[in-house]
Amino acid sequence: MILGIETSCDDTCAAVVDDDGRILSNVISSQGIHDAYGGVVPELAARAHVERCDLVVADALRTAGIVLDDVDRIAVTQGPGLVGALLVGLQTAKALAVVRGIPLVPVDHLEGHVLACTLAPLSFDPPFVALVASGGHTFLARVDDDGRIQELGGTLDDAAGEAVDKGARLLGLPYPGGPALERLAGDGDPTAFAFPTAKGVKGLDLSFAGLKTSLLYRIRDMGEAEAERHRADLAASYLHAVVETLAIRVERALEATGTDRLAVGGGVAANGPLRERLRALPASVAIPERALCTDNAAMIAAVALRRPALAAGDVPGLEAYGTGQRPPAPVA
Ligand code: KG4
Ligand code: ZN
After folding, report:
1. Burial of 67 per CB tally in 10 Å (0-12, 13-18, 19+)
2. Range(s) of the domain holding residue 29
3. For residue 297, how far is its CA from the centre of ligand 1 (angstroms)?
């Protein structure tokens, strides 16, 4: 039985997953305190994690119908993310591990998004090509039989989720923009406006900066009243361009690697049009249910099924690593 803990951004998450990858509980406490600021405030996120983390862990154990003594391993997000936020989950996990003598597995958040599809009922095991499109990261990777990840290409500027959130903001929608943009787009025509899909970017890298600028200029050129009238069409066309930018690279990646297995993860994979577009590809495509695409601790536990635990002596010194940083080398 694995207890997963995830606090890399603004969701306080704990989950229990059994050794066959079945989810016994998956508790996600969304902080909902950042909306007024138009983005996550790191200090506030860390404080809210402090208030909630123990309660969320207790809730995950209770919902799963187990107690700490039943936990064989604890999996915790080590990075990347907001360091102050990460430290809350990490300290909680370290304290439980040391006091109760439970082995601890430090997990990379992005590997969590990649391997979310290995959980039941999908149980979609590597090898496959993976697309991760989240708020902080967007990349394509080849994942081998052991779940080892080799990046094939990534975004040269914004992550897909950032593009979604910035576009939503330009259209006057609240943070986080994804779900609101999807709802507004539902009333619009995705072919009403042509937005760029960075087709010119060769290979498997992606770019979203031009798309965002293009929406900004389009709204400015139309004028406020006209843009307001076409809001749903703008949302649908913009979202369509985000989906195409991702789908074009996925098609290239499947072709370049000669693979016909695709796994998709990250918050943007909760998007209906993207799910539909990728599911229609001539490949075996696994996209987890929406709650496993956005941040959660079950996916962190999923990684721990394939990774060794730390030696007990290394647990107290375990450090978090921030966005854009690599895991620190183990202390010799
Ligand atoms: O993976 P995630 O929950 O957190 C990070 O690790 O970043 O991804 C969050 C991102 C946000 O940018 C959010 O707007 C986007 O995922 N998102 C969506 C949808 N739901 C969440 N984007 C498009 N459509 C959605 N339904
Ligand atoms: Zn994430």
Report:
1. exposed
2. 2-115+295-314
3. 16
pLDDT per position as a tens digit, 96-134:
999 999 999 999 999 999 999 999 999 999 999 999 999
Residue 8 alpha carbon, nearest atom of ligand 1: 6
Q: Are residues 129 and 273 both part of a single domain?
A: yes
Apex 14 CA angle, 47 and 77, nearest 5: 75
Same domain as 209, residue 164: yes
Domain co-membership, 192 together with 283: yes
The CB of 114 under 6 Å from ligand 1? The reply is no
Alpha-carbon span 130 to 166, nearest angstrom = 25
Q: And the tokens for 162?
A: 């950032």
Instruction: Specify whether 199 is located in the same domain as 216.
Output: yes
How many whole angstroms separate alpha carbon 216 and alpha carbon 313?
53
CB under 5 Å of ion ligand 2: residues? 134, 295
pLDDT tens-digit readout, 123-162? 999 999 999 999 999 999 999 998 899 999 999 999 999 9
Residue 178: CB within 6 Å of ligand 1?
yes
Per-residue pLDDT reduced to its tens digit, 10-31: 999 999 999 999 999 999 998 7
Determine if ligand 1 sits within 6 Å of the CB of residue 80: no
Query: pLDDT of 302-332, one tens digit each?
Result: 999 999 999 999 999 999 999 878 766 544 4
